[in-house]
Amino acid sequence: MQREVPQMRERMMVAPSHCPPGHPACREAVGRIVYVERVDPDGDGDAHFVIRDPQGITLPGLTAIDVRAGLRPQPLPGPGDLISAAGPVQTGSYGQSQIHALELDVAE
């Protein structure tokens, strides 16, 4: 009998986000939120999430996601919620690698 891997079980509970075809810098990530920046200091209305993610784009085991105002979910999910995101990896304001979300899905 084969055991189900916890990360795979989590991935099945939220719609997967996908990179657009032919976008070489695009990455996909799925994980539970550990931090939310609800109010962006620069005032452009975007939201930032940090998720537990085995691939760890930002740090080992963690991926930061920048979500523009037009893609920002309402209501905003919080710590413990499961999300998926896809978009190009860009450098954030603190020099960190992060996904700039082109697609974002939140588990219901």
What does the model show?
It is a single chain. By secondary structure, the chain is mainly beta. It has a single domain, classed as OB fold (Dihydrolipoamide Acetyltransferase, E2P) (Beta Barrel). 6% of the residues lie in helices and 39% in strands. The chain has one helix and six strands, in the order H-E-E-E-E-E-E. A five-stranded mixed β-barrel has the order 1-2-3-5-4. A hairpin with a 5-residue loop joins strand 4 and strand 5.
Topology, please?
Blueprint lengths: L5 H6 L14 E12 L9 E6 L9 E6 L14 E10 L5 E4 L2 E4 L2
Parallel strand pairs: 3-5
Antiparallel strand pairs: 1-2, 1-4, 2-3, 4-5, 4-6
CATH homology group? Nucleic acid-binding proteins
* CATH architecture heading: Beta Barrel
Characterize the biggest β-sheet.
5 strands, mixed, barrel
Strand elements, count: 6
Walk across the major sheet and give the strand order. Answer: 1-2-3-5-4
Brief rundown of the structure:
About 5% of the residues lie in helices and about 40% in strands. By secondary structure, the protein is mainly beta. The protein has a single domain, classed as Nucleic acid-binding proteins (OB fold (Dihydrolipoamide Acetyltransferase, E2P), Beta Barrel).
